[in-house]
Amino acid sequence: LSNFTVIVCKAAVAWEPNKPLKMEEIQVAPPQADEVRIKIVATAVCHSDLYHLLENRNTDGFPTVLGHEAAGVVESVGEGVTEFQPGDKVIPVFLSQCGECRFCKSPKTNQCVTAWTRIHQDLMASVESRLSCNGKRLHQFMGTSTFSEYTVVHQTAVAKIDPNAPLDKVCLIGCGISTGYGAAVNTAKVEPGSTCAVFGLGAVGLAAVMGCKSAGAERIIAVDIIADKFEKAKVFGATDFVNPKDHDRPINQVLADMTSGGVDYSIECAGKVEVMRSALESCVGSWGVSVIVGWTDVCDVAVRPGQLVAGRTWKGSVFGGKVGIPGMVQAYLDKKLKLDEFITHKMTLDQVNDAIDLMKQCKCIRTVLTVCQQ
């Protein structure tokens, strides 16, 4: 039986930081109790993969198999798994949901008491790993490791999706699109007729623009230092574009002049602490809501108390709140959610270093890698 067999397959291994990934033959152990082994059909490259490879200062997080934005098919299941069976189309998720704890039962959050006990946050890797190469244990990045033909994840970190869903498109829902869209709709709670600003127009920022549009925002100001990105932002609903490089004064002052005092909602998707502060200061002082979405953990973020006491709200969002992955997939199938427009490049897993270079050079929105045939 396959669920008792070690699978030998290809994976892109990050042996050390700041070095190209290396295609290796790895061993994927059978799923243990409550685990699911998945054949990865498609995976995308997300900036969080680059963050760990290039910016995270903890070298103990290597060797690792990166990748966390993917879709695939269940290959086998471990003991006690009843919700999934071989052949199911699924999306692995880096933020698991036990469904039982007080956080999971609350509509206020997508955090889970047990989820982070399975992840070494400083290593950005799961406590357990079923992956190895030549006898050496490989970390499983964020518990997923989708730059591999096969991976093993806990059943609470798997979402079953519509069998008609095209995996090379809906893989984006596994991180970036849900993160940005949900930050606007669930975390900021953008209201109809409002004015919004989105800082950083990568896939997450563009998804935030799409979320603002879906929520009924009247004006959506896209902010980025790369002018070429505005045409893409317009596709998702942006009405204005501001390039901070075109101005000799702080961007918050520029936006304040454009909006009679500041935007109602600002969403930071750049992962830069100075942009987080600018986004906060760009929303109206009396009721503005600013959401931090971009991930970084190497610098403190600072702001003067006066920026908050008059009534601004500053909050964070991980994975878009309770977006509901199966529902997002259905929205795409119903043509209520854009995905195809995010995909600028298609490659295969063995071209992953080229895909990483494209993202480093800001020459792509999302590159989708074909991993296995369905």
TrEMBL record:
Entry keywords, A to Z: Metal-binding, NAD, Oxidoreductase, Zinc
UniProt-listed GO biological process terms: formaldehyde catabolic process
Cofactor names: Zn(2+)
Domain Enoyl reductase (ER) stretches: 16-369
Range of residues in the leader sequence: none
PROSITE patterns named among the record's database cross-references: ADH_ZINC (PS00059)
GO molecular function: alcohol dehydrogenase (NAD+) activity; S-(hydroxymethyl)glutathione dehydrogenase [NAD(P)+] activity; zinc ion binding
GO CC term, one of those recorded: cytosol
SUPFAM superfamilies: GroES-like (SSF50129), NAD(P)-binding Rossmann-fold domains (SSF51735)
Protein name per its UniProtKB record: Alcohol dehydrogenase 1-like
